[in-house]
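Researcher: I'm preparing a figure for a lab meeting and need a structural model of a single chain. I don't have an experimental structure, so a prediction will have to do for now. The sequence is pasted below. Please return the structure as tokens so I can convert it later.
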Amino acid sequence: MSAQDAVGGPELPAENTISTPIVSKVKRLTLRNYLAYAAGDAANNLSFTMAGMFLILYYTNVIGVEGAVIGTMFLVVRFIDAFTDVAVGRIVDAKKPGRLGKFRPFILWFSFPLLFVSMAIYSADIFFPGISGGWAVLYMYITYLLMGSVFYSLVNIPYGSMAPSLTQLPSERGKLATYRGYGASIAILALAFIIAPQINANVKHPAGLQQSLFFTTVGFIVVGMALYMFTVFGTREQVSRPTEKVSLRDSLHSLRVNKPLIWLSIGAVMFLTGLTAFSTLGSYIAIYVQRDPGYIAWNTLAQTIGLFIVGPFIPTIVRTIGKRTGYLIFCVIAIVGALVLGFGPLSTAPVWGLVAFFLMGLGVNGVNTLMWALEADCVEYGQWKTGKRTEGTTYAVFSFTRKMGQALGGFVGGLALTFAGFNAAVASAGQSQADGVAQNIQLWAGGLVAVFVLVSALIMIRYPLTEKTFLTITEEIAVRDLGDE
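Model: Understood. Here is the structure written out token by token.
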């Protein structure tokens, strides 16, 4: 045994190594399987993206909390996710598969509490009429903590960890990631077209907006549960895995030697920081820059169209130029969209907002889809290095880094809103903002996205796990498994 084998497992296979993986005798995924997996992320976004798109607007324009306070809350609560995500990942790895497999029981058990707390987030003035000041901030922290750090982790970590167990074929993993993107984008689009008219009708009537958001989120509980149940009973876990128990030490060692996961996670933090800042300020772009809340829906539609254009090409991109190269190309497209967003004449020609959001949709959704496929590959890399398969911990760490990016994005987005001169007290009173605020919001939104996406691209240039290397790794794992039988 070499010194390298003793401390970290085998070296990364040479780039010019070409081989074909030995695939386990598993059934190919069906359309029903893809749709069921997509339904899970659609349900996830009824809570998580609902908070990302509209929580800050709800608390500034209805409850009267300043943007910087909300941004700080994003940072603090998602920092707590460092512990809850990894803890849930360990729980998932330690669980023995049952009748519903290893991952789906968590979705079955915790989906309703997640959706219920998501409704409670938007019910501050319903449950506690006239709530304001410190009590409002406390309520915001408690409900968002329960939603994001507890119940969302207990549902999303198993959901995302399940992907590597559904298939080991790169093309099918690419399709799974694509369908996951479809599910998320359809939910986001539905949110936009459901919530935007409510904002438009109540832009100067905070009490009316509170009532409509309450009843809407109650409805999301019913819809979300139906989607989650489709995921639970419409997917199957079939990739073989080592049967020995995975200890905490095994999980930590797997993470320490997993260089592709480390690079991917750092790139994800930067990318998600820019994307979340963009999502945080998106509603304000429509209301104050384009001067029509209806553009919340139309901007989201333009962004979603980008996904449905990109999605069908993801398997081809994976097969021809590879995930890393595709990631970099989509980053460039997102940066172009960010520049149009920041410097285009959106106030005088709102249609430029649609152009910006469309380009952002192409770039952002392309990167996000490939990001999930890359994460699944990192599970095999960790297994190849250590002999231990840790889907839960690997996904938990990646999810944590994404949440850190989302936390930083929400934080800088909230600060940008304050630096732009936005006044929550004025907004919650139904009054207009001062001159120049709209232009400042536009510049901050475009600039933040462009800078952070650029940094993410520079990081991912050094991502080491190429498609040829991955094929070699899966072949070696399959040979080991055959040798163990």
